[in-house]
TrEMBL record:
Parts of the chain that traverse the membrane: none
Full protein name: Metallo-beta-lactamase domain-containing protein
Domain Metallo-beta-lactamase: 64-264
Lineage: Eukaryota, Fungi, Dikarya, Basidiomycota, Agaricomycotina
Organism: Mycena metata
Nuclease recorded as keyword: no
CDD domains assigned to the protein according to its UniProt record, in alphabetical order: metallo-hydrolase-like_MBL-fold (cd07730)
Length: 384
């Protein structure tokens, strides 16, 4: 018994150095994280609204749409289930009228699978009645789903700066009365936060160190992300729309120090990343060098029609989240990272063993692989 107690103290007290560096308190409480790929979507001729530069032939932006189911078990062995984001609703004609033209014009296209996340939950044997809480990372249409399908007992949690005006009271609103009707709505106010990780204000959602909501502003007013503890010393960072392409986060020196880029990808990058658009100190015309690149390949869009509300603030949030991305104990997963689409284990599989299965090691550089849809660093015509 004494040995077991000492072992537990050792595990908690000796939590990974990176966690101490970030100021994340030690805890043995965890959440189980499971991912759904709800839809695949394409922004037609609109990639520039999210990212820069957009190379010739890359004008369409294709993205998966992820949602996450989290199971939390407290000290009394009681389980609470929450959803982090919901994806699209399957009937876009029933969005608020201000959003419908995106779909009728063909600007936003998603595969007509005839399903939404509630269908996926039902198919997986998860009743909506046991979903305690839905958390919106933000109020864009590809995250809010159709809240009217959830019972009134399901709380809705969102950032305090979220614009909660609704149609028809506000004719141009993108949310509807049915999103809120009859349910408890909780606004997370990060001004009350007493924790900060990597410069990000954090709120301990369950009060036991298993799941934190993080203030990651810039993409849209009220945008938040999350940090889920999946073992006592490892985490999944649910980055939401802090970034959209892996190339907005990578490469960086700290990442390269902890995760070596495979040689075959270095060689491919050398030959195929366009030096007309990307450069590094050791690059030469027609031969790009990854190792000497100290900044991410891609930036955050700042065009007048961008889906980014505050590009300067959004870029700061990316920089702060990058410290997580470089850490061996944190797997950063954005809501639309297409470089991971084929590699993620989806529901009913769990993401909790990502480190044991070396998922990050196997995927963190996959966006440089020409067979990966996350590779967007050469013109489609292949010129340099």
């Amino acid at each position: 018994m004494l040995f077991s107690t000492l072992l537990l103290v050792s595990l908690v007290g000796g939590v990974c150095a990176s966690c101490r560096d970030f100021g994340i308190p030690a805890s043995t409480f965890t959440v189980e994280v499971r991912a759904f790929q709800v839809q695949n979507s394409t922004l037609v001729d609109l990639a520039h609204t999210l990212v820069k530069p957009v190379l010739p032939g890359r004008e369409n932006g294709s993205f998966p749409v992820y949602a996450f189911l989290l199971d939390h078990r407290d000290s009394k062995n009681r389980t609470r289930r929450i959803m982090f984001d919901l994806g699209f609703r399957k009937d876009p004609s029933n969005f608020a009228p201000a959003l419908v033209p995106y779909f009728t014009s063909g600007a936003v296209h998603f595969e007509p699978s005839g399903r939404d996340v509630t269908d996926l939950l039902h198919a997986g044997g998860i009743s909506l009645d046991i979903i305690d809480t839905v958390i919106w990372s933000h109020a864009h249409f590809d995250h809010i789903g159709d809240m009217s399908k959830f019972p009134n007992t399901t709380r809705l949690v969102l950032g305090s700066e979220t614009d909660t005006s609704t149609y028809p009271t506000s004719p141009n609103a993108t949310l509807q009365e049915s999103d809120f009707a009859g349910r408890e709505v909780v606004k997370i106010d990060f001004a009350t936060a007493n924790l900060t990780f990597s410069g990000l204000k954090a709120i301990d959602f369950f009060g036991d160190g298993s799941f934190y909501l993080l203030d990651t502003p810039g993409h849209l007013a009220g945008h938040l992300s999350a940090l889920a503890r999946v073992t006592p010393t490892s985490f999944v960072s649910l980055g939401a729309d802090t970034f959209h392409f892996a190339g907005q986060m990578r490469p960086r020196p700290a990442l390269q120090n902890n995760f070596s880029c495979p040689g075959h990808l270095l060689e491919y990058a050398k030959e195929h990343i366009s030096t007309d658009y990307f450069w590094s100190p050791e690059s030469r015309d027609g031969a790009f060098d990854v190792h000497s690149r100290s900044q991410p390949l891609l930036g955050v869009s700042d065009t007048p029609d961008a889906f980014i509300a505050d590009p300067v603030t959004a870029l700061v949030s990316v920089e702060k989240l990058a410290a997580f991305d470089s850490d061996p104990d944190i797997f950063v997963l954005a809501s639309h990272d297409i470089s991971l689409r084929a590699a993620l284990p989806y529901f009913p599989a769990s993401l909790n063993d990502w480190k044991a299965k070396q998922l990050k090691t196997k995927t963190v550089w996959s966006f440089l692989d020409n067979t990966n849809p996350g590779f967007v660093f050469s013109p489609i015509n292949g010129t340099h």
